[in-house]
Amino acid sequence: MTLNPFRIFDPEPQVRQIAFELYSMVRDLPLISPHGHVEPRLLAENKPFPNPTELILIPDHYIYRLLYSQGIPLATLGIPTLDGSRVEQDPRKIWQIFADNFYLFAGTPTGIWLTQELEEVFGISEKLTTANGQKIYEQLEAKLREPAFLPRKLFERFKLAVLTTTDAPADPLVFHRQIRASGWPGRVIPCFRPDALFEINAPAWKSELTALEKASGMAIGNFRQFISSLENRRAYFKQCGAVSTDQGIESPYTHYLSASEIETIFQHALRGSVSVQETCAFQAHMLMEMARMSIADGLVMQIHAGVMRNHNRLVFEKFGINKGCDIPVTTEFTRNLAELLNIFGNDPRLTLVVFTADESPYARELAPLAGHYPALKLGAAWWFHDSLQGMLRFREQVSETASIYNTVGFTDDTRAFPSIPARHDLSRRVDATFLARQVTRHIIDMDDAQRMIKALAYELPWQVYKLG
Fold it and tell me: How confident is the model at residue 393 (pLDDT cuts 50, 70, 90)?
């Protein structure tokens, strides 16, 4: 298993050579991870990773969703259940299932990441197969016992300039504070993610509200107190280094309700009698409130839209959220964001980064919107489209109208810590290929391309997320 230095690039010789030249300019630049799901505890405690299975497979739904699609039960892969019922505990057995089925990942972005991760991070020189599964497990296990493979050492080796986690408003951010107090210079920052507090018809909403009351030290009996509590927690997150917020929503519909309308809905939620329609109206209003708050406190606002969460009810009810069951849906932005953008989109104090798992509005809506409103930036090709073809389609559909300078570079959205460098490397190779094609078509020259590849790899995320 030897990685070809020209992998991903266009096979046409002139394009390939220019792409390699552009990629070589940014290959070793530091990595910025402005959105992801690595647990801050890993870097706060800096303990050895327990074993290869718990490091590579169990946290990463990109891996086990494909295995599940082939009829492999999640319980046999060690994925924890909500009720604590038995799942496979032997990491070697789980790894062997993975090895037996590694061929399934050929041609997928996950296969690209895994291959590069195994070779470049861990020095594995063979393709994972049924026959060598246990041998490779033992090689990985031995690596994880070395001091060079402690979380902080890997963070430094990966040249991570910034790693952003995803955190609930009531999170005390103990591990972020522990990292900062340790004197270690690695920059690990929280991101304010209030999704659960906006799902006012969910069974867990009351407990989420109670947690917010406790964290903010404020009683919440009405909507104004709810907003004050959120503002309190945003300020706390900012003190702990946060630069952004994030909302995962199905529809990006935005609309201000009157004070009496929003209070009525909030009181219905407190009594447990809120409707689905009221929940949608509440979320539309809260997106407006989050934009208003971002203008006040400077936190970058992110929206991840266009996904039906937890589509597989059986998996959701047994294993919970974030198990690879979120599926793209058709999404509309022009009308849905109209009210927010007309009220806030011309204000230079707001930065709104929009991601979607639905490709259909890239050229039709998102590129024209980002190419006009100063506040709006386009997040990277996300989730199902952070792949070779998906990222190329994204660049091809949005760059002409929006310009790359209204996008934010790459977002790895990772749950598996050691895959971060491979994900960024894929993005840099794809962007180099896109720009090389532009050069060979004489749309841009090499000076333009060199400036643009640096912007995409590093400068744009640094600027958009106000990391300086």
Answer: very high
* Mean pLDDT confidence for 321-341: 95
pLDDT in tens, 44-85: 999 999 999 999 999 999 899 999 999 999 999 999 999 999
Residue 249 CA to its chain's centroid (Å): 14
Domain 13-47+151-464 has CATH 1.10.1610.10: no
Span(s) in the chain for CATH 1.10.2020.10:
48-149
Structure tokens at 443: 């749309």
pLDDT confidence bin for 127, thresholds 50/70/90? very high
> Which residue, chain included where needed, has tokens 């870097």?
43
Joined together, the tokens standing for residue 238 give 């900012």
Q: Rounded CA gap, 280 and 250, in Å? A: 10
Contact 240, 174 (CB under 8 A): no
The class level of CATH for 48-149 reads mainly alpha
Cα(391)–Cα(399) distance, integer angstroms = 12
How far from 276 is each of 58, 164, 282, CA to CA, in Å? 34, 32, 10
394-427: pLDDT as tens digits: 999 999 999 999 999 999 998 899 999 999 999 9
- On whether the CB atoms of residues 411 and 379 are closer than 8 A, the answer is yes
**By the 8 A CB rule, do 354 and 305 touch?**
yes
Buried b vs exposed e over 205-214: b needs ≥16 C-beta within 10 Å?
beebbebbbe
